[in-house]
Design goal:
The protein has helices spanning 3-7, 26-37, 64-69, 114-121, 136-141, 157-169, 183-188, 198-227, 238-269, 278-285, 287-307, 312-328, 336-362, 365-368, 373-399, 416-440, 445-451; strands at 19-22, 42-45, 60-62, 73-76, 97-100, 126-129, 149-154, 173-176. It is of the alpha/beta class and 456 residues long. α8 runs parallel beside α11 (287-307), α11 (287-307) runs antiparallel to α13 and α15 packs antiparallel against α16 (416-440).
Length: 456
């Protein structure tokens, strides 16, 4: 297909304009290919045009000066360290849109953003920051679902609109971030590594380590010290299956606890117009991640529970019990109380996990976008507290009367499930305080959207 034919494809206002790309690296090559497929005539500017043989065949390759003469929109696909050739081209950039797509190796690597530095380096050009959040691989392969959003910022609204039109033509979703002052934030965005997940993962890791050592002391070290019994094989299945449910439900309670604390603060202050402490704001913002990590631990608990009957040690105990009964010529009668206890224990667990999964599904954008706020709040808030209540009851039935048996307190330490139960009971009881705050009018509707409806 000829370039003229490719340029005629589509009806975008700026689609007939030739676009220049300065830089013949991976990103410049991929961007050029994408622009050509979208119908744009593309010219590349290179220091050595004759050596740039890997560029798209439909694109024209010129020197920097010749390429700049043929286009009004220029994409600068070179690193900041290589901007030294631009001042000599300042006269050719006069009044043209210069799109900076560069990124740095680390956050705040330079005193000012690359785009701001570029605007000082070539003051005659109209600098627009954008396309730095899209990878070369995504542009080349067309797999843009994971990073369709393109942040655009600049001081000239018309120039920004032109760049946003180009982004839309490539199947991207441009987002206007304001003036060039936002360029530093835009450049730091690709360097972030799960910023909202750090606190939830840190909490989950800390709880996991604590319960691991606690269970090792009670379940493995204690029998070895007191009766010289080696049960170290429990490290593979039994100990993790004690850790997962406790960590999961403590994290679930932490999803709803900040709303309770917010209600306490507003009741104490007697006003809703004071800002909450920064630690509480940070806690509120990561509740969705806390809930998803909690769901992951709950899922692991379910998997581990399914494989419990297949373990060799469990099958050995069953066979040993049957042999002992045969030797004594006795048959163990069905304990109906124990049957009820086990059935209720599993029933509560299954219902709680089912609602757990529902909370997770509702957090998916494809699902949350098709429900109204009242429906979303009902699931995430009302059913969320029901989930917490069911899982607490599930743990309580598991404990049954064990807390009354002195032999269960090894080295006078409570069992692991008791520690998790305490945090969950406290959270469920404190929910009444939040309801009082709602009735008093201190926590108004917009706050309820924040505090009563955490997304899992």
């Amino acid at each position: 297909m000829e370039i003229s034919e490719m340029a005629a494809v589509g009806g975008n206002e700026h689609k007939q304009e030739t676009i220049c790309i300065l830089g013949t690296g991976d990103f410049g090559h991929s961007l050029g290919m994408r622009l050509l497929k979208s119908g744009y005539p593309v010219v590349f500017g290179s220091r050595s045009p004759q050596e740039s043989s890997l560029l798209p065949s439909c694109a024209q390759i010129f020197t920097h000066t010749e390429a700049l003469k043929k286009a009004k929109i220029i994409f600068l696909a070179v690193h900041r360290e290589n901007y030294d050739f631009l001042p000599a081209l300042s006269s050719f950039l006069d009044g043209k849109v210069l799109v900076d797509v560069s990124n740095n190796l680390r956050k705040n690597q330079y005193p000012e953003s690359n785009a701001q530095y570029l605007s000082k380096l070539v003051p005659k050009a109209i600098v627009v920051k954008g396309f730095n959040t899209v990878s070369a691989w995504a542009l080349q392969s067309g797999s843009l679902d994971a990073n369709k959003q393109v942040f655009i910022c600049g001081d000239d609204s018309k120039s920004k609109q032109q760049v946003m039109d180009v982004a839309r033509s490539l199947g991207l979703t441009p987002l206007d971030q304001g003036s060039l002052l936002a360029a530093e934030e835009v450049e730091n965005y690709p360097l972030q590594l799960f910023p909202m997940w750090r606190l939830p993962l840190t909490i989950a890791f800390g709880l996991t380590v604590f319960f691991f050592f606690y269970c090792v002391v009670i379940d493995i070290i204690h029998p070895y010290v007191t009766t010289n019994t080696d049960v170290s094989y429990k490290l593979a299945i039994s100990v993790p299956n004690r850790i997962f449910p406790n960590v999961s439900l403590i994290l679930l309670s932490l999803v709803y606890l900040p709303g309770v604390i917010a209600a306490f603060l507003q009741l104490n202050r007697g006003t809703k117009y004071e800002r909450f402490p920064s630690w509480l704001d940070r806690w509120m913002l990561c509740r969705k991640q806390l809930g998803l990590v909690a769901l992951a631990f709950a899922f692991l608990h379910v998997l581990y529970t399914f494989i419990l009957p297949t373990r060799y040690s469990v099958r050995w105990r069953w066979m040993h019990s049957m042999i002992e009964e045969s030797k004594k010529n006795k048959t163990m009668e069905l304990n109906k109380v124990q049957s009820w206890r086990v059935d209720v224990y599993f029933a509560l667990g299954m219902m709680g996990f089912g609602l757990y999964v529902l909370l997770g599904i509702t957090s998916l954008p494809s699902v949350s976008n098709v429900v109204n706020w009242r429906e979303f709040r009902f699931v995430q808030s009302k059913l969320g507290h029901v989930t917490l209540l069911l899982c607490t009851a599930h743990t309580a039935v598991y404990g049954w009367d064990r807390f009354l048996q002195s032999k269960r307190y090894k080295w006078k330490l409570p069992q692991a499930y008791m520690l998790g139960m305490h945090s969950r009971y406290v959270d469920v009881e404190k929910n009444d305080t939040h309801n009082k705050a709602l009735k008093s009018g201190l926590v108004y509707c917009t706050s309820c959207r924040i505090y009563m409806g955490p997304r899992l």
